[in-house]
Design goal:
By secondary structure, this protein is α+β, with helices and mostly antiparallel strands. The chain is built from two helices and five strands; from the N terminus they run E-H-E-E-H-E-E. The chain has one domain: Alpha-Beta Plaits (2-Layer Sandwich).
């Protein structure tokens, strides 16, 4: 199990980014975590699961929002197992 922590920059708020991330997470068995808008206009995503599933999840988000994302800060971390589902944080 791994944890993927990503900060997305660009026009990533107001385009359905969080809701689409949640929907995409349902396509990848075992991917849990959360996504939220940040005050600086970025979107933060934390997801846990198998590395193969997380890579597929990330690629799908990246492809879907390719024209909106200008940069990504990606960190791989050790999973904590604290999440039961993938949700949108306020």
């Amino acid at each position: 199990m791994k944890r993927l922590h990503v900060l997305f920059s660009g026009t990533v708020q107001g385009v359905g980014f969080r809701f689409t991330c949640r929907d995409i997470s349902e396509q990848f068995l075992g991917v849990t975590g959360w996504v939220k808008n940040l005050p600086d206009g970025k979107v933060e995503l934390v997801a846990e699961g198998g590395q193969k599933e997380l890579m597929g999840f990330f690629r799908k988000i990246d492809e879907y929002f390719e024209r909106y994302i200008s940069s990504r800060e990606i960190r791989w971390e050790k999973a904590t197992g604290e999440f039961k589902e993938f949700s949108i944080k306020k």
